[in-house]
Structures are given as structure tokens and as C-alpha cells.
Amino acid sequence: EAWRGLGLSLLRAGEQTEGQAALRDYLTRRPDASDRGMIAMLVGA
Fold this sequence. Notes:
Number of strands: 0
Oligomer: single chain
Largest sheet: none
Strand content: under 5%
Order of helices and strands: HHH
Number of domains: 1
Number of helices: 3
Distance between the termini: 19 Å
Radius of gyration: 9 Å
Helix content: over 70%
């Protein structure tokens, strides 16, 4: 969950590249995440 929070915070702060990278790490670590669809959309996957 820490990677998810970090990624979303970075996106809100305008740090798109870093935010997307953190969210990709989140999806790698939590492939069964219930919010996978939304996060994948945010990272362009």
C-alpha cells in the first residue's frame, strides 16, 4: 500500500513520471490488487 500512496501523492504533486513508476511497482508487488484497473489506467497500462 505504501507504493500506491506514494504514487498517488506524486501524481497529485505533478510528478507524473515518478508517480507512474511508483504505481507500476505497486502493481508488480500486488498483482491481485482490487484497484488494479484504476491504477493501470493511471499508468497507461
